[in-house]
Amino acid sequence: PREGMGQTTIFAAATLVMAVQPLLLHLAETRGESLPPRVFMLAAETMKLLICISVITFRRIGGKPEAVWQGVGHTVSFMIPAGIYLVMNVLKVTAAGALAPHVFQLLAASKILCTALASWAVLGKSLSAMQWGAMVMLTAGVILGQHREHNGSSEMPMFALIIMLVNSCLSAIGAVYTEKVLKAKQSESLSMFATNLHLAGQTLMLNAQLGSSTTRAVLNLGEAPEALASIWGPALPSIKLSWWSIAALLNEAVSGILVSTLMRRIDSNAKNFSFAASIFVTAALSVPILQRAPQMLFFHGAALVALSMGMYGREEKRKQELAQHAADSA
Q1: Quick one: pLDDT at residue 291?
Q2: Helices then strands (H, E): number in the chain?
Q3: Dist CA 84 CA 79 (whole Å)
Q4: Which of the residues 76, 106, 200, 237 could staple to 48 if both were Cys, CB 3.0 to 4.6 A apart?
C-alpha cells in the first residue's frame, strides 16, 4: 500500500508540474520575456544540476549518506539517452518548421505506441491485449484533446513525416533506455537526485562539445554576439531573465526530476500516461487563467484518456496479483 501511494503521489506531482509548464511558457512569451529554445533547455538542465547538488550537499551535511559515484561505466551509460534527446531536439525543430501545428501534434502522439513497442523489444515488458488496447485508446484521446479548428493547408511533406516518425522512435528508445539505466543494479543505491545529477551532467557535456566552436568564438568578445546568434539564438544582450522565465526554468528542472523518478518507480508507459493527463489539466487551468474554453472534442479525448488509464492500471494490478500468487505457490 505504501509503495502504491508513493507511485500515485509521484504520478500526480509529475502530471501537475507538466501541466503548468505550457502556461508559464505562454505567459513569458506574451510578455516578451521568453528565452531562445536551446538557451532555455540548457539553463533548465543547469538549474536541475544545481538543485541536485544542493540537495545532496545538504543531506550529507545533515549526516545522511548519499551515494553519487558508481564508476565510469555507470555514468557513461547516461550519455546514450542524453545523446538521443539531443538529436531529437534538432529533428523536432526541423519538422516543426515544415508542418502545420495540428499535423505536428498528430504525428507527435505516435510516440505513445512507439514507447510501448520499445518497452516490449528492449526491456521485455509484455502487455496484455487489454493494455495494448488502452495504449491505442490513450493515443486517440491525446489526439482528440489536442485537436484545434484550423484553416489553411494541411500539406505533409514526406521528409517531415519521416523526421517525425524517426523522432517518435528515438523518443521511445530514449525513454526506455533511460528507464533501463535508472533501474540498473548500479543505480539502486542512488537517490533520484543522484541519478538526475548524472543525466543533467551528461546532457550539458554533450551540448558543450557541440558548441565548442561557439565557446572558442566567445573568447573573442568582438565575435561573441554573432557566434551566439548562429547557434544559441538571439545574442546575450537581448536575453531577459524575468520572473516568469525563472519560474518556467524551475518548472522544467523539477519536471525532469519527477519524470525520471516516475520512470524509475513505474515505467516509461506511466510517463506517457502522465503526459497525456497533463494535457487535460493544462486545458482546465487555461480556462480561468487564459480564458480559453475547450472544444467538445476535448471532453471526448479526456474521457478516452481516463478510460485508458483505468484499463491499463486494472490489468497491471491483475498481472501483479497473478505473479504474486504464482510466487507464493512455488
Answers
A1: 75
A2: 14, 0
A3: 9
A4: 200
Count other Cβ atoms within 10 Å, centred on residue 185. Answer: 8
CB 305 within 8 A of CB 141: yes
Q: Cell triple for residue 76?
A: 557513461
The interaxial angle of helices 2-30 and 268-290, nearest 10 deg, is 50
| CA distances in angstroms from 314 to 8, 71, 129, 143, listed in the order given | 14, 39, 13, 23
Helices 111-123 and 268-290: crossing angle in degrees, nearest 10, is: 160
Residue of 109, 85, 205, 89 lying closest to 165 (CA atoms)? 109
227-271 confidence digits (pLDDT tens): 444 444 444 445 556 788 888 889 989 999 999 999 998 888 888
- The residue written with cell numbers 480561468 in the block is 288
Task: Report the alpha-carbon angle 292-298-300, nearest 5.
Answer: 155
C-beta separation of 170 from 81 below 8 A = no
Cell numbers found for residue 298:
476535448
Kindly report, residue by residue over 175-204, the tens digit of the pLDDT: 899 899 988 888 888 899 999 999 888 888
Residues in CB range of 174: below 8 A, 6 or more apart:
81, 84, 85, 88
CB atoms within 10 A of CB 208: 12
Q: Decide: residue 292, CB within 10 A, 0-12 exposed, 13-18 middle, 19+ buried.
A: exposed
Residue from 111, 89, 77 nearest 44 by CA: 89
